[in-house]
Amino acid sequence: MSQAPLDLERAGWLERLLARYVAAWDPGRSAARVAAARQAAPDRPREEQALLLADRLLDALALGGRAPSLDGPLGAELAAARGPAERRAALPRLVAQGDLIGDAATLHDNQSGPEERQLELATVLCLGLGEVKLARRLHDAHLAAKQGRAATTRLLRDVERRLAPRWSRAPSAARPVEVGLTWLEARTLAAVASSYFEASSIEEDTVERLLRLSEAEKVDLIEVLVALAWADGRLSPEERRLIEHQIEHAELSADTARRLRAHLERPFPVQQLELTPLAPTARRFVLEKAALLSLIDDDLDPSEVRVLEEVALGLGAGPGELDRTLVEAEAFYREHREALRELGPVAGAVQRLHGLLLERATAAARTNARRLAQEVRETGELAVLLAAASVRPLTREETTKVKAQLIDICKTIPALAIFALPGGGLLLPVLTRVLPFNILPSAFAEE
C-alpha cells in the first residue's frame, strides 16, 4: 500500500519526512564520501574533514544555488509533496542538510538506529539554527529512545515551527547572490554536527563559538558585496535592494545589521575590508557572488573590475582564478537571463562582461601563442582539419571535432583553461586572431 503524499501544511510533516529520509539513507554512499575526505586530509581534525565534506557537496552547487537532485524513491515522494511552492522548493536543500549531518555521523562512526537518527537530525538542525534549548530537549528524547521510549511528536512539531520562517529563504536562480547565506550556514551546520557527534552531547560553548564564526563570515560576505556595489561611486536601487535583503535574512544581531545598513548610506571603499585568504572552494564562492552582483545594475564599470581583482587578491586567489570565475558568471547569466529579470536589466552588463573576457582571453592566448601553436601542430587530426579549413568549409561534424580538440589543448595550458569552462567555448574565436594562421573557417568564427 503506497503512502499518502507528504503534505507540508499539515502538522507532523517533519516527523514523516525524517522517517522517509532515514529509511532511504544509503550508508555506502556516505561512507564513500567520508573515505574521500579522510584521504584528502588524513592528518586534519575531524571538524576540518567535516568542512571538507560540506565544501565538496556545495562546490558543484555554488554559482546558481542549485539544490542537489533527488533520485530514487525518496526523490519521487518529495516530487509529489503538497504545499506552497516555496516549501516544496526548499525540500532538496533540507535533504542536503540531512546528508551533511549524516556524513558527520559516519565520520564519527555513529551507529544509531533509525529512530535515534531521526532525533539526531532534528537536534543538529536546531543547533544550526541557534535553538539550543530545543536541541537539548531533543537530545534528552534521543537518550530516552536508547532506553526504548519513542521520540515525542510534540518536539518535532516545535522544530517545524522554528523552520517555518526560513522557508522563503530557499535559493533560486532568480536570487543567485543570496545563496551565500545558505552556503555559509551549511558549512556551519557541518561543523556543529561534527562537534555533536564527537562529544555525543551538546557542547554549548562550542556551538556558540561556531555560530559567532558564522555571523562573522556572513558579515564578511555582505561587506564584500557592499564594497563592490559602491565601486563605481553610486549604489543602484537593484544593488541596494539585494544587499538589504541579504542583511534582513542573515539573522544578525541588531547592532551588526545596523552597522551594515550604514554602509549603504555612504561609499564603502574596498580598502576598509579586512580580507583574509580563504580555502579554494570558499574563495570561489565569494568571488562568484561578487561577480554576479557586479552585473545587476546593468553596468560593469572598470572600477568594479578593479575591486574584484583586489578582493580576489585579498582572498588568496592565484593567477587566472578571477577570469575563470567571470567566465562561469557570464555562462550562468546567459542561461538564466529570463529568470533574472526581477533583478533589473542585465543584457548590457553581460555584453560588457563578454567584451572584458575577450580582452583578457586574448592577452592570455597571445602570451601562450607559441606553445598553443606547437600543441596544434602535434595534434594529428586537428592539424589536418585546420589545414583543410584554409581551403574549404568544414562540415558540422568536423567543426565539432575542431572545437573539442582545441578545448582539450587549452586544458593543458593553465592560462588558457578558461576556454574549457562551461561557457568558455564563446571565447574560442579569440584563437583565430592569435595563432599565426587561420585555424577556423569563417562560418565557425561567425558562430
**Strand element count:** 0
What is Rg?
25 Å
Tell me what portion of residues adopts beta-strand conformation.
under 5%
Order of helices and strands: HHHHHHHHHHHHHHHHHHHHH
Quaternary status of these chains?
Answer: single chain
Specify the number of helices: 21
Overall structural class, as computed from helix and strand content, comes to mainly alpha
Q: Main beta sheet, described? A: none
Helical content band: 55-70%
Q: What can you see in these coordinates?
A:
With 447 residues, the chain is mainly α. The chain folds into three domains: 190 residues, no CATH class; 143 residues, Orthogonal Bundle (TerB-like); 79 residues, no CATH class. Helices cover 66% and strands 0% of the residues. The longest helix is centred in the middle third of the chain and has 26 residues. The termini are far apart.
Sum up the structure in keywords:
TerB-like, 447 residues, 3 domains, mainly alpha, 21 helices
SSE arrangement:
Blueprint: H1 13-24, H2 27-40, H3 46-59, H4 72-79, H5 85-107, H6 114-128, H7 132-146, H8 153-163, H9 179-199, H10 204-229, H11 237-249, H12 254-262, H13 280-296, H14 302-314, H15 321-335, H16 347-367, H17 369-377, H18 380-389, H19 396-411, H20 429-434, H21 442-446
Helix pairs in contact: 1-6, 2-3, 2-5, 3-5, 3-9, 5-9, 6-7, 6-9, 9-10, 10-11, 10-13, 10-14, 13-14, 13-15, 15-16
Short overview:
By secondary structure, this protein is mainly alpha-helical.
